[in-house]
Amino acid sequence: MQIASTLVLAASLLVGMGLAGTEKHPGRLVVADGRLGQLQIIDLEKGQVVAAFSTPGPASVYPSGNGQYAFAVHREQNRVSVVYGGLRLEDHGDHKDLVVEAPYILHTLTSGPKPTHFKTHAGVVTIYNDGDGTVAVLEEKDLGLRLRVSEVATGAPDHGAPLFMGGHVLVGSLNRGVVEVYTRLGRKVSSFEGCPRLHGAAILGSRVAFGCADGVLLLEQRGLQFVGRKLPNPSGTPERVRVGTVVSHSRYPFFIGNFGQGLARIDTQITPYPLPAQPVRFGFDREGTLVAITANGQLHTLEAASGKVLRSLQVSEPIAATGEGAVRPGLALGDGVAYVSLPSQGEVLEVELRSLEVKRRFAVGGTPASLAWLWVEGKVH
Length: 381
Fold this sequence. Notes:
By secondary structure, this protein is mainly beta. The chain has 1 helix and 36 strands.
């Protein structure tokens, strides 16, 4: 009887501390249709669509930094939809519980003409408007409250790469080949030239990498100042081969970019990583596994430090080039899992990265394209 009483007391204490009967929620997946103004939300625990919303038009979707929201950027409709994914933390003092709710559209914003590139860092969202060269700036903590959107004006329409870092807004411009550094109030404090056809940007610690037609421009924040240096393309690089998309992960001291028919490691130099075909989508999962979809329809996992292909899986037919109304597969990377949209089949695949096996197929219909994985660090009772 004494042993039984002790066990009951211990179990009661664990429940009171929020430690018993808890498990992580695998998150939710936002699926944007590539032809229609429609967003669907898949609950990855239930394995089914739990919400669908009509939106101003087709969108590219991106997760917020805290994993609670998705930003759907409707370029042709000059709008941005903010979706609450239905996952939030409830503070209980000594611990936080994950609360699972119904998703809903939180805001529909007019950020500016032709909103295109999106980036969030340190809780600050930046969206570049190609139509007039302005950058919309907002803070994630204001979502659902009194949302304030400020604006940084670069002076002319362009195709830009914006990001917030260390109290400054950095804006890279494709046509002018320059990175300009602004205060939050929109005052320009410095600029860095010499990056022709600038495209793509990523942050790693105190460094930022911007892709250029002839190499990569690296900026490093030192106190209140930024210093820059240029990494040239390797000798013998074919014409039109360049870095145009950049990603990073805190686990590694280098960036990864696309580079012709492969990827490239970017640190003190640009080191090409050959692939069987041109990369279409690539990125890191939560733990730092490097993943790429190539134009031959294959999904690959790679060793990030060397570029060695670890596993490959055929997930689709060969992927058409952009243009002519083509809708390409989307890729979202979660916790040891890749999600791949198949526009021509109306499906989303869930692929386990360790084995590179398809674990589930979600029939969503339509033309699924861009994907965003939402996940909050917490446990649900």
